Amino acid sequence: MAAAEDPVDDAGGPINMWVADPYFRTDERIIEAFNYAVANGCTHYFPAPGFDGHVLQKAIARYYLEDLAVEVDPLGEVCPTHGAQEALSLAVQAGTRPGDEIVVPEPTYSAFIEKLETFGVRPVFVPLAEEEHWRLDVDAVKSAMSEKTKMIYICNPNNPTGTTCSRGELDAVSELLKEHERVSLLLDECYARILYDGSTHHTLLGDRGLLDRLYVVDSFSKTYAMTGWRLGYLVTGKRNADRVKRLSEEYNGGVSYAVQYAGAAALARCSESVRSMVAELDRRRLAMVDALAEVKDVSFETPSAGFEVFVDVSAYSMDSVRLASELEKIAGVKTMPGVKYGPSGEGHLRLVFCAEDVRRVREGVSRIDGYLQGNRG
C-alpha cells in the first residue's frame, strides 16, 4: 500500500488533524479484484456464476484462524456490512430495546455515542482511568450496571486514546458477563491491526461460551485505506447473526458483491502492504508525539494503536469545542474536541496523524503551539 503523494506545498493551507482517514492509496490488488468482479458480471443482486458467494466470509474466518487462532463459522457467524457504522448499529438493535442501558467506558468512539439516541438507548458512562494510562476499570463497569443494562460497549484498541486492553482486563470483562447472563458485549476492534511498539491485540472472540452474547465489529476502512468502500463486518453467534442479517436486508440489502470480493483480496493478499502502511504511520506518530513534547502545559499518552493522540489541554482556560473552533479559524488546524468522546474527554483534543505527511504533522503541532502560547490563561 503506497503512501499518497504529498499534498500541495501550501504553508498557509488548512491542516487536517480531524478526520481519521488514512492518507494512503488503496492497494492496487484490491482495486484489481474489484474490477475483475465487475468485468465478469458481479453487478447484480447476487455474484455471477463461477464466483463463490461466501468468499468474504471465508476470508474473514481464515484471518481469525491464522492470525488469532480463533475459529468462527464463516456462513453462520460472519455478517458483511456497509462499514463498521452499520455493524455497530445492527449490534445495538439486535442486543437492546428502547429504554435499555448500555455501559460505555469513555472516552470512546464518538459516532457510537451519537447513534444511541437514535435507538432510544441510554449510555451510562464509566470513565477510563487517565492517570493509569486510560486503563479499563472493570469494577467501575460492574458498579454502573443496573437492571436496565443490556450491553457493554468497549472500543479496543481505543479511539481516541490509542490504548489497548490487556488480556487481564478482557478476562475480567468475561467473568463479569458470566455473572450477568442478560448482558451482551459489543467489541469495536477496528484498529486491531494498527499497532505500535510491539503491542498485542487481545479479543474475547475465542471464548465460545460467550459467543451468543458477543458482537465483534471490524472494518476494512482503516487497515486497508478503504474508507470510501464502506465495507465492514460483524461476528456473533448464529442466533444473533440471523437477526443481524434480517435487519441488514431490511435496511440496505446485501453489500455489493464486487466490494466483498475486493475485501477478500485485501485479507488474502495485502498483509505486507498493511505492515508497510503501519510503519509509515509510526513515523508520523513519533513525529507528532515528539513535537507535542515541546508544547508547554499539555500532556498525553503515546498511543500504542490507531491514528490518534488524545491531548490534555485543560491548562488552557477554554472548553474543547471552542478551542477546536478557534484552532481551525485562527491557526488553520482542524482538530476534534475531546468532549465528543464522552464527559471525560472535556479538556482534551483529539489529533490524528494519518491524514498528513510527517512535515505537515510537525507544522500542525507548531501552529497549535503558537496559538496556545498566545492565549494562555
Features:
377 residues, alpha/beta, Aspartate Aminotransferase, domain 1, Aspartate Aminotransferase, domain 2, 2 domains, 7-stranded mixed sheet, 4-stranded antiparallel sheet, 13 strands, globular
What ranges have pLDDT less than 50 throughout 5 or more consecutive residues? 3-9
Range of helix content: 25-40%
pLDDT averaged residue by residue: 95
Strand order of the largest sheet: 2-8-7-6-5-3-4
- Structural Rg: 21 Å
Q: Which sequence of SSEs, written as H and E, runs from N to C?
A: EHHHEHEHEHEHEEEHHHEEHEEEH
Output the CATH homologous superfamily of the largest domain: Type I PLP-dependent aspartate aminotransferase-like (Major domain)
- The CATH topology of the largest domain comes to Aspartate Aminotransferase, domain 2
| Class computed from helices, strands and strand pairing | alpha/beta
Strand residue percentage: 15-25%
Q: What does the largest sheet look like?
A: 7 strands, mixed
Choose one word for the global shape. globular
Number of domains: 2
Q: Please give the CATH class of the largest domain.
A: Alpha Beta
Total number of strands? 13
Alpha-carbon distance between the two ends: 45 Å
SS element count, helices: 12
CATH architecture of the largest domain: 3-Layer(aba) Sandwich
Which helices and strands occur, and which strands form pairs?
Elements: E1 15-16, H1 28-39, H2 55-68, H3 74-77, E2 78-81, H4 83-95, E3 101-106, H5 110-116, E4 122-127, H6 138-144, E5 149-155, H7 167-179, E6 184-188, E7 214-219, E8 232-236, H8 238-251, H9 257-269, H10 271-292, E9 299-300, E10 308-312, H11 320-331, E11 333-334, E12 336-337, E13 348-352, H12 358-373
Parallel strand pairs: 1-11, 3-4, 3-5, 5-6, 6-7
Antiparallel strand pairs: 2-8, 7-8, 9-10, 10-13, 12-13
Helix pairs in contact: 1-9, 2-9, 4-5, 4-8, 10-12
